[in-house]
Design goal:
There is one protein chain. The protein folds into two domains: 8-25 and 94-218, Rossmann fold (3-Layer(aba) Sandwich), CATH 3.40.50; 27-91, no CATH class. It is 40% helix and 12% strand. The protein has helices spanning 26-44, 48-62, 71-78, 82-88, 99-108, 121-131, 155-162, 177-186, and strands spanning 13-16, 112-117, 139-142, 170-173, 190-194, 210-212. A six-stranded parallel beta sheet has the order 3-2-1-4-5-6, with helices on both faces. Helix 1 packs across helix 2 (48-62). It is globular, with a radius of gyration of 18 Å.
Length: 220
Protein backbone atom coordinates (compact mmCIF):
# COMPACT_ATOMS: atom_id res chain seq x y z
CA UNK A 1 0.00 0.00 0.00
CA UNK A 2 1.42 3.38 -0.99
CA UNK A 3 0.22 6.70 0.35
CA UNK A 4 -0.86 9.19 -2.29
CA UNK A 5 -0.22 12.89 -1.91
CA UNK A 6 -3.68 14.40 -2.18
CA UNK A 7 -4.03 18.17 -1.89
CA UNK A 8 -7.22 18.02 0.12
CA UNK A 9 -7.21 21.80 0.66
CA UNK A 10 -8.06 22.16 -3.03
CA UNK A 11 -10.67 19.39 -3.29
CA UNK A 12 -14.25 20.41 -2.56
CA UNK A 13 -16.25 17.56 -4.08
CA UNK A 14 -15.73 13.80 -4.13
CA UNK A 15 -17.69 11.79 -6.71
CA UNK A 16 -17.86 8.08 -5.91
CA UNK A 17 -18.95 5.10 -7.95
CA UNK A 18 -20.78 2.29 -6.15
CA UNK A 19 -20.23 -1.21 -7.58
CA UNK A 20 -16.58 -2.22 -7.59
CA UNK A 21 -15.61 1.00 -5.80
CA UNK A 22 -17.55 1.22 -2.54
CA UNK A 23 -18.97 -2.29 -2.80
CA UNK A 24 -17.25 -5.55 -3.71
CA UNK A 25 -18.01 -6.29 -7.36
CA UNK A 26 -18.14 -9.99 -6.54
CA UNK A 27 -21.87 -9.68 -5.81
CA UNK A 28 -22.64 -8.33 -9.27
CA UNK A 29 -20.29 -10.69 -11.08
CA UNK A 30 -21.80 -13.67 -9.29
CA UNK A 31 -25.31 -12.39 -9.97
CA UNK A 32 -24.94 -11.78 -13.71
CA UNK A 33 -22.46 -14.52 -14.59
CA UNK A 34 -23.74 -17.36 -12.42
CA UNK A 35 -27.10 -16.75 -10.75
CA UNK A 36 -29.02 -15.17 -13.62
CA UNK A 37 -27.87 -17.78 -16.19
CA UNK A 38 -28.89 -20.57 -13.77
CA UNK A 39 -32.34 -19.02 -13.27
CA UNK A 40 -32.69 -18.43 -17.02
CA UNK A 41 -31.78 -22.06 -17.73
CA UNK A 42 -34.37 -23.30 -15.24
CA UNK A 43 -37.14 -21.09 -16.59
CA UNK A 44 -36.50 -21.80 -20.26
CA UNK A 45 -35.51 -25.46 -19.84
CA UNK A 46 -32.01 -24.99 -21.23
CA UNK A 47 -28.74 -26.58 -20.25
CA UNK A 48 -26.52 -24.44 -18.04
CA UNK A 49 -24.00 -24.14 -20.87
CA UNK A 50 -26.62 -23.09 -23.45
CA UNK A 51 -28.13 -20.52 -21.08
CA UNK A 52 -24.71 -19.12 -20.22
CA UNK A 53 -23.71 -18.79 -23.89
CA UNK A 54 -26.99 -17.13 -24.80
CA UNK A 55 -26.75 -14.59 -21.99
CA UNK A 56 -23.10 -13.76 -22.67
CA UNK A 57 -24.09 -12.95 -26.25
CA UNK A 58 -26.96 -10.75 -25.06
CA UNK A 59 -24.69 -8.98 -22.58
CA UNK A 60 -22.07 -8.20 -25.22
CA UNK A 61 -24.67 -6.59 -27.49
CA UNK A 62 -25.42 -3.80 -25.02
CA UNK A 63 -22.26 -3.62 -22.90
CA UNK A 64 -21.35 -0.02 -22.03
CA UNK A 65 -24.78 1.35 -22.91
CA UNK A 66 -27.48 2.38 -20.45
CA UNK A 67 -29.42 -0.83 -21.22
CA UNK A 68 -26.46 -2.85 -19.90
CA UNK A 69 -27.15 -1.39 -16.44
CA UNK A 70 -30.96 -1.34 -16.68
CA UNK A 71 -32.94 -3.77 -14.54
CA UNK A 72 -36.14 -3.00 -16.48
CA UNK A 73 -34.41 -3.86 -19.77
CA UNK A 74 -33.14 -7.22 -18.48
CA UNK A 75 -36.46 -8.07 -16.84
CA UNK A 76 -38.14 -7.67 -20.25
CA UNK A 77 -35.32 -9.26 -22.22
CA UNK A 78 -34.93 -12.37 -20.06
CA UNK A 79 -38.44 -12.80 -18.69
CA UNK A 80 -37.05 -12.81 -15.14
CA UNK A 81 -37.85 -10.58 -12.15
CA UNK A 82 -34.35 -9.16 -11.79
CA UNK A 83 -35.10 -7.08 -8.69
CA UNK A 84 -36.49 -10.12 -6.88
CA UNK A 85 -33.52 -12.25 -7.93
CA UNK A 86 -31.16 -9.58 -6.61
CA UNK A 87 -32.97 -9.66 -3.27
CA UNK A 88 -32.64 -13.45 -3.08
CA UNK A 89 -28.86 -13.16 -2.80
CA UNK A 90 -28.65 -9.72 -1.16
CA UNK A 91 -26.68 -11.22 1.73
CA UNK A 92 -23.70 -11.33 -0.64
CA UNK A 93 -23.59 -7.52 -0.92
CA UNK A 94 -20.50 -6.31 0.94
CA UNK A 95 -18.68 -3.04 1.53
CA UNK A 96 -15.04 -2.83 0.45
CA UNK A 97 -12.35 -2.35 3.15
CA UNK A 98 -11.98 1.11 4.73
CA UNK A 99 -14.89 2.60 2.75
CA UNK A 100 -16.79 3.71 5.84
CA UNK A 101 -13.65 5.16 7.42
CA UNK A 102 -13.01 7.16 4.23
CA UNK A 103 -16.60 8.41 4.02
CA UNK A 104 -16.57 9.46 7.66
CA UNK A 105 -13.36 11.41 7.07
CA UNK A 106 -14.92 13.20 4.09
CA UNK A 107 -17.98 14.07 6.18
CA UNK A 108 -15.87 15.34 9.08
CA UNK A 109 -13.89 17.57 6.73
CA UNK A 110 -17.04 18.93 5.09
CA UNK A 111 -16.37 17.71 1.57
CA UNK A 112 -19.37 17.41 -0.71
CA UNK A 113 -19.84 13.67 -1.22
CA UNK A 114 -21.88 12.56 -4.24
CA UNK A 115 -22.52 9.04 -5.49
CA UNK A 116 -22.55 8.81 -9.27
CA UNK A 117 -23.48 5.31 -10.34
CA UNK A 118 -24.61 3.50 -13.47
CA UNK A 119 -26.70 1.22 -11.28
CA UNK A 120 -30.45 1.17 -11.87
CA UNK A 121 -32.49 2.81 -9.09
CA UNK A 122 -33.84 -0.60 -8.09
CA UNK A 123 -30.32 -1.92 -7.52
CA UNK A 124 -29.15 1.30 -5.88
CA UNK A 125 -32.04 1.26 -3.41
CA UNK A 126 -31.46 -2.40 -2.51
CA UNK A 127 -27.77 -1.84 -1.87
CA UNK A 128 -28.38 1.24 0.25
CA UNK A 129 -30.96 -0.71 2.28
CA UNK A 130 -28.35 -3.41 2.88
CA UNK A 131 -25.34 -1.20 3.61
CA UNK A 132 -26.79 2.10 4.90
CA UNK A 133 -23.95 3.93 3.15
CA UNK A 134 -26.36 6.60 1.89
CA UNK A 135 -26.16 8.38 5.27
CA UNK A 136 -22.69 9.62 4.29
CA UNK A 137 -23.77 11.20 1.00
CA UNK A 138 -25.02 14.66 0.16
CA UNK A 139 -26.62 13.26 -2.98
CA UNK A 140 -27.13 10.00 -4.85
CA UNK A 141 -27.28 10.24 -8.66
CA UNK A 142 -27.91 7.34 -11.02
CA UNK A 143 -27.14 7.59 -14.72
CA UNK A 144 -30.65 6.46 -15.65
CA UNK A 145 -31.94 9.83 -14.46
CA UNK A 146 -29.65 11.47 -17.02
CA UNK A 147 -30.42 9.07 -19.86
CA UNK A 148 -26.86 7.89 -20.55
CA UNK A 149 -24.10 5.84 -18.96
CA UNK A 150 -21.07 7.45 -17.35
CA UNK A 151 -18.72 6.19 -20.08
CA UNK A 152 -20.76 7.83 -22.84
CA UNK A 153 -19.70 11.20 -24.25
CA UNK A 154 -21.87 13.99 -22.92
CA UNK A 155 -22.61 12.38 -19.56
CA UNK A 156 -20.35 14.66 -17.54
CA UNK A 157 -21.83 17.75 -19.17
CA UNK A 158 -25.30 16.55 -18.19
CA UNK A 159 -24.16 15.76 -14.67
CA UNK A 160 -22.72 19.25 -14.29
CA UNK A 161 -26.13 20.73 -15.13
CA UNK A 162 -27.75 19.10 -12.09
CA UNK A 163 -24.67 18.92 -9.83
CA UNK A 164 -22.55 22.01 -10.58
CA UNK A 165 -19.16 20.94 -9.25
CA UNK A 166 -15.84 22.51 -10.23
CA UNK A 167 -13.87 19.95 -12.28
CA UNK A 168 -10.50 21.29 -11.06
CA UNK A 169 -11.50 20.83 -7.41
CA UNK A 170 -13.24 17.47 -7.83
CA UNK A 171 -12.04 13.94 -7.11
CA UNK A 172 -13.58 10.96 -8.90
CA UNK A 173 -13.07 7.36 -7.77
CA UNK A 174 -14.41 4.69 -10.13
CA UNK A 175 -13.38 1.11 -10.94
CA UNK A 176 -14.28 1.57 -14.64
CA UNK A 177 -11.27 2.93 -16.53
CA UNK A 178 -13.45 4.01 -19.46
CA UNK A 179 -15.44 6.18 -17.06
CA UNK A 180 -12.25 7.75 -15.71
CA UNK A 181 -11.05 8.55 -19.23
CA UNK A 182 -14.37 10.16 -20.13
CA UNK A 183 -14.38 12.21 -16.92
CA UNK A 184 -10.77 13.27 -17.41
CA UNK A 185 -11.57 14.54 -20.90
CA UNK A 186 -14.29 16.64 -19.34
CA UNK A 187 -11.73 18.17 -16.99
CA UNK A 188 -12.07 16.33 -13.67
CA UNK A 189 -8.61 16.76 -12.20
CA UNK A 190 -8.27 14.03 -9.57
CA UNK A 191 -9.20 10.62 -11.02
CA UNK A 192 -8.50 7.35 -9.21
CA UNK A 193 -9.31 3.74 -10.05
CA UNK A 194 -9.64 0.57 -7.96
CA UNK A 195 -6.94 -2.08 -7.94
CA UNK A 196 -9.20 -5.08 -7.23
CA UNK A 197 -12.91 -4.31 -7.78
CA UNK A 198 -13.88 -7.97 -7.27
CA UNK A 199 -12.22 -9.48 -4.19
CA UNK A 200 -12.36 -12.94 -5.81
CA UNK A 201 -10.69 -11.96 -9.08
CA UNK A 202 -7.36 -10.55 -10.19
CA UNK A 203 -6.12 -6.98 -10.11
CA UNK A 204 -6.51 -4.27 -12.73
CA UNK A 205 -3.60 -2.69 -14.62
CA UNK A 206 -3.37 0.97 -15.59
CA UNK A 207 -0.43 3.16 -16.58
CA UNK A 208 -2.67 6.21 -16.57
CA UNK A 209 -4.38 6.21 -13.18
CA UNK A 210 -3.37 5.37 -9.65
CA UNK A 211 -5.39 2.34 -8.57
CA UNK A 212 -6.43 2.29 -4.91
CA UNK A 213 -6.02 -0.88 -2.91
CA UNK A 214 -7.26 0.60 0.38
CA UNK A 215 -8.94 3.97 0.81
CA UNK A 216 -6.52 4.97 3.56
CA UNK A 217 -3.99 5.55 0.78
CA UNK A 218 -5.82 8.79 0.04
CA UNK A 219 -6.05 10.06 3.61
CA UNK A 220 -3.47 12.39 5.19
Amino acid sequence: MSKQHVDWDHIDTVLLDMDGTLLDLNYDNHFWLDYVPACYAAKHELSDEAAHDKLMAKYSEVHGSLDWYCIDFWTRELGLDIVELKREIADKISIRPEVEKFLCWLNEHEKRVVMVTNAHPGSLNLKMEQTRLHVHFDRLIDSHALGMAKEQEGFWDKLHEIEPYGPASTMLIDDNLSVLECAERYGIAHCYGILQPDSQKGTVDSDRYHLIDRFSELLP
